[in-house]
Write a structure and sequence with these properties.
single chain, globular
Length: 199
């Protein structure tokens, strides 16, 4: 039983790290400040739908796009791993953070910037494509959908999460996630280099 679940678990964890659900909660609260409960629910629905749609679309057309422009999977692993590493280092540096590109009063804030690039950004797209290559489409899609369900639940209960672990707790959790993301980036680079050498 555990052997059957292993691909799903191994695909779930990197995507969970890349999505950074807990780290997005303070940003979400700042973006929806002053919104009514109905408006907030619509923003959550829009953000999760956008993030899920973009990620699933990339799952199905990502490799086709790479083949079209002549990029191999090892090439993408090296570039994607480097990107993940750079993103994680930037987020770990003091005084840096995800930029809030809009205010909470815009009606499409759920689509941009919350849905993309804050929930589904370069890190999620890169990681998803790597999980697709490593574990196949079913574990990757299920792991992606479970992560998006967690995002939806977390945003719906954002205030409760903040009360439970506090702003400092969410920041500390995010820092740990960024360190894991950096390690995943190094792993991807290593696999990509081995893949190039094996060609």
């Amino acid at each position: 039983m555990l052997t059957r679940l292993e691909p799903f678990i191994l695909a779930f964890i990197p995507i969970f790290v890349a999505v950074d659900t807990i780290g997005n909660i303070p940003l979400f609260i700042s973006l929806v400040e002053g919104s009514t409960k109905k408006e907030r629910n619509k923003i959550i629905a829009d953000s999760v739908a956008t993030a899920t749609g973009v990620a699933i679309l990339f799952v199905f057309v990502g490799k086709w796009i790479l083949r079209l422009i002549g990029i191999t999977i090892p090439d993408f692993q090296i570039a994607g791993g480097a990107l993940l590493f750079i993103i994680s280092i930037r987020l770990l540096l003091p005084g840096t953070q995800k930029h809030i590109l809009s205010d909470g009063h815009e009606k499409d804030v759920g689509v941009f910037p919350l849905g993309t690039p804050l929930i589904t950004g370069p890190a999620v797209l890169t990681t998803t494509l790597m999980m697709l290559d490593n574990f196949g489409i079913i574990p990757t899609l299920i792991s992606l959908l479970v992560n998006m369900l967690i995002v939806w639940l977390s945003l719906a209960k954002a205030n409760a999460v903040i009360r439970l672990i506090g702003i400092s707790g969410t920041r500390a959790f995010s820092k740990i996630m960024y360190i894991l993301l950096a390690a995943i980036g190094i792993m991807m680079i290593r696999r990509g280099v081995f893949g190039v050498l094996a060609q």
